[in-house]
Amino acid sequence: MKISSIFGPVPSRRLGLSLGVDIVPYKTCCFDCIYCQLGRTTDKTVQRREYIRKEKIIKDLRDFLDDPPPFDYITFSGSGEPTLNDNIGKLIEEAKKISDVPVVVLTNGALLFDEDLQKELMPADIIIPSMDAVTEDVFNAIDRPHPSLNIEKIIDGLTSFTRRYSGEIWLEIMLVKGVNDRPEDIDAMKRVLETIDAEKIQLNTPIRPPIEDIAKTVDWEKMNDVAKYLGAEVITEFEDDRIKLVGKETEGNILNLLRRRPCTTDEISGALSMEINEVIKYLNLLKDKKIKVRVFQDKNYWVMK
Ligand code: SF4
To answer: Which residue lies with its CA nearest to atom 3 of ligand 1?
Structure first.
């Protein structure tokens, strides 16, 4: 079954209803973050190329926009790091031609030192880069990057990009208990933040099941203290009636499928024509309340509780 590059609109903490455009295959990334909700990185790379054909992505977007449900943003994100697709600039331009909705790019920021990429991202309305560490040891511990990457070069790239870019930068920091939340980590981050031109600094902590158990949630009191110190905001769960409606319908479809037979995550993705990372979001919401995992012949199946 052919899967569309478009997913959602999905409820997003920051972006209300976000229409996702997935432009790299699952799971292609230059990092393998310990807190990633998508699963282990299977293609850890820094190579920029056309991972998914531009024509297919544009057709999927045009087809979807023929009769779309309401949504607030078109967001390039998805199954890995979208800036690895070397057509991202043309895709942003195309999205802006065929829709008035603001275009957002979620990125781990690792390749922003690349001047070609900097130019390609200019037409986007909002860039949301992440920065979880400013020292090499913490960077390696939390983001587990491709061996060719180093944090100094990444910060230089982020700093130079934010100075040139005229849209909005919302910088995200994922705080993980015991990994990058020590006072010396926060002090070092504060010094670097002074060099970055961002409209918003957003503090996050893992609240859904991460890939590694060591990725623990920082408690809210500490989150608020750190946010105040860094001049940041804590990102809280977005609640909106339209989101509840979209979410409930998708949850219902997944539960209907699992009432009939146990399925793997891939099978749910195929059966409901949903992107795998979208399926994972919903499975995490339903997990332990209505569904659970059962291992059978080395495969994880989702079953009703
Ligand atoms: S950068 Fe994003 S997609 Fe890549 S491993 Fe980290 S959280 Fe996952």
So the answer is: 80
Domains and CATH numbers, the chain: 6-234 (3.20.20.70), 241-304 (1.10.10.10)
pTM: 0.81
* Protein residue with least CA distance to atom 8, ligand 1: 36
Task: Give 67 Cα–ligand 1 centroid separation in angstroms.
Answer: 31
Task: Confirm or reject: Cβ of 206 under 6 Å from ligand 1.
Answer: no
CB of 108 within 6 A of ligand 1: the answer is yes
Is 29 touching ligand 1 by the criterion CB < 6 Å?
Answer: yes
Q: Going by C-beta distance under 8 Å and a sequence separation of 6 or more, which residues neighbour residue 277? A: 7, 20, 22, 26, 37, 38, 78, 79
What pLDDT digit, counting tens, does each position of 240-258 carry?
Answer: 444 454 567 788 888 877 8
pLDDT tens profile 122-150:
999 999 999 999 999 999 999 999 999 99
Strand pairing category for 168-174 and 16-22: unpaired
